[in-house]
Write a structure and sequence with these properties.
- This protein has 328 residues and is an alpha+beta fold.
- It has three domains: 3-63, Winged helix-like DNA-binding domain superfamily/Winged helix DNA-binding domain (Arc Repressor Mutant, subunit A, Orthogonal Bundle); 69-273, BirA Bifunctional Protein, domain 2; 280-323, SH3 type barrels.
- Helix content is 33%, strand content 27%.
- It contains nine helices and 14 strands.
- The strands form three sheets. The chain has a seven-stranded mixed β-sheet with strand order 3-4-5-9-8-7-6, with helices on both faces. Strands 13-12-11-10-14 form a five-stranded antiparallel β-sheet, with no helix packed on it. A two-stranded antiparallel ribbon has the order 1-2.
- Strand 12 and strand 13 form a beta hairpin.
- Helix 2 (25-32) crosses helix 3, helix 6 runs antiparallel to helix 8 (240-259) and helix 6 (152-170) packs across helix 9.
- It is globular, with a radius of gyration of 20 Å.
- It starts with a helix and ends in a 5-residue tail after the last strand.
Length: 328
């Protein structure tokens, strides 16, 4: 951790502890033994990461702990992003993924975000149910990627990276990625991503990035051994608006890398966050088909390179994996 990052953490701690009141730059500088300029720089960096902080020339700084997603679009306007995010908000929805698909059928702008406080029919990869109670982040981002269909795996990778980096920007937690895009904290799932697309011949007409993050929601007892939430690990609630800003900012950055031809950057970031590479794994391609082996690397197209128990080298483009704690 750099000295600037350490200072940011300290400034953030003071602002969070002020319970929504203003704290002057001079007071923060005095507490931390740094200059007011250093405090100002740290605050600006926190804002860039997604935190919502008000600045007043006389009063100082105030952390805005917002959890009201109804007005999210208003808090996205100052994000320095290429995508122009437009939010379609629901108190309750069947599935943000299905709603996004319906909107796409009638024509919708790239960067549209379909967001729900809770979902009644949320789903993850391979058709699994995704429990989506109030308190989490359940949303779908609509994209129009100018890439050939075989590269769609890269969208999965960059989406996982965006969520992991967004969590890191807002908290002091260190998430890791399980291929292709499960986000883990302490080896438990905190977020999942489902990428679907409308494909016409050799063109991706629309891509739908479905993202579910356990933020302040309670984790049901029946899945507590495999899932966790940010609130549970931090011991306090997290601003979902700040986290949403951070994730969407990171998504924009990585998506821009993809469409401008820098997919190698996405692979590099994913590898730096990986908890899969080097491990013995089982890949479930379907309920009846599985592959056992070792995860060796990520190919430039986003596929997982696996050395099987029979010493064959395979490229895996889809599936669900389990990390093995012991030798397979």
């Amino acid at each position: 951790m750099s000295s600037l990052e350490s200072l940011e953490d300290k400034v953030l701690s003071i602002l969070l502890g002020s319970a929504g009141s203003y704290v002057s730059g001079a007071e923060i500088a005095s507490i931390l033994g740094v200059s007011r300029m250093a405090v100002s720089k740290a605050v600006n960096n926190l804002k860039k990461k997604g935190h919502v902080i008000k600045s007043h020339p006389r009063l100082g700084y105030c952390y805005v702990d917002i959890d009201d997603l109804l007005y999210l679009e208003e808090y996205l306007r100052d994000l320095p992003t290429r995508l122009r995010y437009r939010v379609v908000y629901f108190e309750e929805a069947t599935s943000t993924q299905d709603i996004a698909r319906s909107l796409a059928d009638t024509g919708v702008n790239e960067g549209t975000v379909v967001l729900a406080e809770k979902q009644s029919c949320g789903r993850g990869r391979m058709g699994r149910e995704w429990i989506s109670p109030p308190g989490g982040l359940w949303f779908t981002v609509v994209l129009k990627p100018p890439i050939p269909p075989p590269k769609i795996t890269l969208l999965s990778l960059l989406s996982g990276c965006a969520v992991a980096l967004g969590i890191m920007d807002i908290t002091n937690l260190n998430p890791h990625l399980k291929w292709p895009n499960d986000v883990l904290l302490n080896e438990k799932k905190v977020a999942g991503i489902l990428v679907e697309a409308n494909i016409e011949t050799d063109l991706i007409r629309y891509a739908f990035i479905g993202i579910g993050v356990n933020v302040n929601n309670e984790i049901p007892r029946e899945i507590a051994n495999i899932a966790t939430s940010i609130n549970q690990l931090l011991g306090h609630k997290v601003s979902r608006v700040a986290l949403m800003r951070a994730i969407l900012k990171r998504l924009d950055e990585l998506y821009s890398k993809l469409i401008y031809g820098y997919s190698d950057h996405i692979i590099k970031v994913w590898k730096s966050l990986s908890s899969t590479l080097g491990k013995r794994i089982i890949v479930y391609l379907s309920e009846k088909e599985k592959i056992k082996g070792q995860a060796l690397d990520i190919n430039k197209d986003g596929s997982l390179i696996v050395k099987t128990s029979e010493n064959k080298i395979l490229k895996i483009y889809y599936g669900d994996i389990i990390h093995l704690r012991h030798k397979a």
